Amino acid sequence: MNVHAIICTRTREDISETTDKLLGFFSRCKIKSYLITGANSIFAAYTGAYKKINPQDDDIVIFCHDDIEIRDHPNTFVNNLISSLADDSTGFVGAAGTTHLTENAIWWDQSMWQQGKHKGKVIHLNHEQPLQPNQFGMSQQTFEDVTYYGEPGDVVVLDGLFLAAKPKVLEDVGLGKPEYFEGEWDFYDLHYTSQAFLKGYTNKVMPIKILHNSRGELVGRDSWHKNREAFITHTELPLILHP
């Protein structure tokens, strides 16, 4: 069994320090990484890289953002990943998701969060701290906030910052962009994981310490809203994980 990691980035220049650290982490885990640079579509990037890898049935394929940092010990991470995908009925595993996707198709919906429907936790960088004095004058400090959604467990959909699955699941779901999506970067995660759920697989939030170096600016893009509306139109919502 081999584990492969596909990392997609739109940059065509030097990779960031965060991406470099991520590649180093996967290397320590003995995971072969495939960095797709200058991509125009996350759907096309994932599809093309997957075909080149041509994984074996018992392999594991990771799809993740280029702006994350995994803080688990390499052995802990690999063991948790393998055990989380040990059951053939498992679909995708990831870092955060929900057991109840409402009609608004926003997995982190606040009302569901308050009802305890979400699972997982993600560390986010807080860039909004006030300027602080230092020996060079005034500077803005960066702090880390842990966004806690809930304990790991089964969910209906997962966030796309980190996803992993076996080849059978990926081929059942398909990695290509649905024809009804206009945007090339948005709602791929809910599409992939909801399709796995609807096909009878069990998606899971696995134990993982992960930092997402993002403020979520992409949510405000027109393409995000268009793909969201298309997803709502073509998916029978809500999706609910029943006990």
Write the layout of secondary structure elements.
Blueprint (H helix, E strand, L loop, with lengths): L2 E6 L8 H12 L3 E5 L5 H12 L6 E6 L2 E3 L3 H11 L5 E5 L1 E3 L1 E2 L8 H5 L3 E9 L4 E4 L2 E4 L2 E8 L2 E3 L1 E2 L3 E4 L1 H7 L14 H11 L3 E4 L4 E3 L9 H13 L4 E2 L3
Parallel strand pairs: 1-2, 1-3, 5-15, 8-16
Antiparallel strand pairs: 3-14, 4-16, 5-14, 6-8, 6-13, 7-17, 8-11, 9-10, 12-15
Q: Major sheet: order of its strands?
A: 2-1-3-14-5-15-12
The first-level CATH class is given as Alpha Beta
Tally of discrete structural domains: 1
Tell me the Rg in angstroms. Answer: 18 Å
Number of helices: 7
**What structural class do the secondary elements suggest?**
alpha+beta
CATH architecture: Alpha-Beta Complex
Beginning-to-end CA distance, first to last residue: 32 Å
Structural overview:
The chain is an alpha+beta fold. It has a single domain (3-240), classed as Spore Coat Polysaccharide Biosynthesis Protein SpsA, Chain A (Alpha-Beta Complex). It contains seven helices and 17 strands. A hairpin with a 2-residue loop joins strand 9 (131-134) and strand 10 (137-140).
